[in-house]
Amino acid sequence: MSGVWGNKLKVSIFGESHGPAIGVTLHNLPAGIRLDEDAILKEMARRAPGSSDLTTPRKEKDQPEIVSGYLDGQTTGAPLTAVIWNTNTRSKDYSQMKRLMRPGQADYPGRMRYDGFADYRGSGHFSGRITAPLVFAGAIAKGWLAERGIRIGAHVLSIEKIYDRQYTLEDELTTELLQKWASEQLPLFEEEVRPDMEEAIYAAKQAEDSVGGVVETIVSGVPAGYGNPFFDSVEATLAHLIFSVPATKGLEFGSGFDIAAMRGSQANDAYYYDTNGNVKTKTNHNGGIIGGITYGMPIVFRTAIKPPASIGQDQETIDIESGENTTMETHGRHDPCIVPRVIPVLEAVTALALMDLILVKEGIEFAKS
Ligand SMILES: Cc1cc2nc3c(=O)[nH]c(=O)nc-3n(C[C@H](O)[C@H](O)[C@H](O)COP(=O)(O)O)c2cc1C
Ligand SMILES: C=C(O[C@@H]1CC(C(=O)O)=C[C@@H](OP(=O)(O)O)[C@H]1O)C(=O)O
């Protein structure tokens, strides 16, 4: 399984949802980064399961234990490994998944790929649980980027068919807004839509069903000139990580699919010097990236998250052992909607992508003192 990603910063993840532990190793982290352990734990708590009835009832503390590469509060430059112990597995919920392939889940493709050897308990290494180590790694990257004035925020653009408004260039990722969003399961611009979004999730749960949604992510403070043409473009780097997150099914940058219906005269983002002599653009249809490289405007993208597959309703499927068509209900502790918990994950992988792009360009070995 491909558990390693990155050009300069190498991120390697391990573990299964119902195994003893999950975790991550970060290679080539600059030495001397001071870790803000409180900030890391806050990020972990945003994603952790079992925090409310909008999410899975499986409760996990998600307390990372750093076992290498960290001394006296600072990274040493050696590979940094963190382990997160699984403390609340209930594998009997998955006994039928040896034979019955959940529609929309990784059971059937995973079985075909690994010839039946993959750990099926709790979806094994395919589980959304493996995003906990990514949030740990991303929290380190976020702290490092924040020192460079780079901020990352994400809000819920939609749940099912209920919409928040989109980000505009007038909006600023202020400390207050980021703190507010980080404290909310459904971070929003428009507070009025919250009850309807929550109700959509509760209604789906009540009906033994699930719902999806769209998350909009914004990155401010990235100077012009990061990224590369072709294979390591900023879009390609972000997309690689975003599509590694389970349940992501769509991604658009800037005006995305809508740009296809514009004329060049509308889609071109006109440059100007602001009063401080900084280069800006009047619009941001290209989402902060042209030619695979940043141009100093916010990076903006939207990610479509599918409704979780494991639902209690009767569904048609196959019994892979008997070779017959059958039906199944999925029981167990599942998220009725992944959006609230995937937001810190999307922010985390965004931070890792940007950190890698910056390390590649600047070859930094040591943190600034
Ligand atoms: C944080 C998080 C929580 C998730 N929770 C569930 C869940 O409770 N039930 C479920 O069926 N899928 C859940 N998923 C999604 C599955 O892991 C995912 O759909 C599956 O691995 C197949 O991958 P794909 O949807 O990307 O194709 C979750 C994903 C994430 C990121
Ligand atoms: C445990 C987590 O989420 C899990 C993600 C998940 C899935 O299929 O992705 C299915 C459920 O697993 P289980 O059946 O073991 O409770 C969720 O609870 C987590 O994110 O930490």
The averaged pLDDT comes out at: 97
Helix content: 25-40%
Per DSSP, what share of the residues sits in E-state strands of 2 or more residues? 15-25%
Rg over C-alpha atoms, rounded to the nearest angstrom:
21 Å
Q: Quick one: overall form?
A: globular
The total strand number stands at: 18
CATH topology: Chorismate synthase, AroC fold
Ligands: flavin mononucleotide, ligand EPS
Strand order of the largest sheet: 1-2-3-7-4
Structural class of the helix and strand makeup?
alpha+beta
- Kindly report the name of the CATH homologous superfamily: Chorismate synthase AroC
Order of helices and strands: EEEHEEEEHHEEHHEHEHEEEEEEEH
Number of helices: 8
Largest sheet entry:
5 strands, antiparallel
Name given to the CATH architecture = 4-Layer Sandwich
Function: This reaction introduces a second double bond into the aromatic ring system.
Subunit structure: Homotetramer.
Cofactor: FMNH2
Organism: Suicoccus acidiformans
Structure description:
- The chain is α+β, with helices and mostly antiparallel strands and 369 residues long.
- The protein has a single domain, classed as 4-Layer Sandwich (Chorismate synthase, AroC fold), CATH 3.60.150.
- The protein is 25% helix and 22% strand.
- The protein has helices at residues 37-47, 107-114, 131-146, 175-182, 194-206, 234-242, 264-267, 339-362, and strands spanning 4-5, 10-15, 21-27, 65-68, 70-71, 74-75, 80-85, 151-159, 162-163, 213-220, 248-253, 271-273, 279-281, 289-290, 293-294, 299-305, 315-319, 324-328.
- The strands form six sheets. It has a five-stranded antiparallel beta sheet, covered by helices on one side. A five-stranded antiparallel beta sheet has the order 9-8-10-16-11.
- β12 (271-273) and β13 (279-281) form a beta hairpin.
- The two termini are 38 Å apart.
- Bound molecules: flavin mononucleotide and the ligand C=C(O[C@@H]1CC(C(=O)O)=C[C@@H](OP(=O)(O)O)[C@H]1O)C(=O)O.
- Flavin mononucleotide is lined by residues 56, 105-106, 123, 126-128, 131, 245-247, 306, 308-310, 334-335, 338, 341-342, 345.
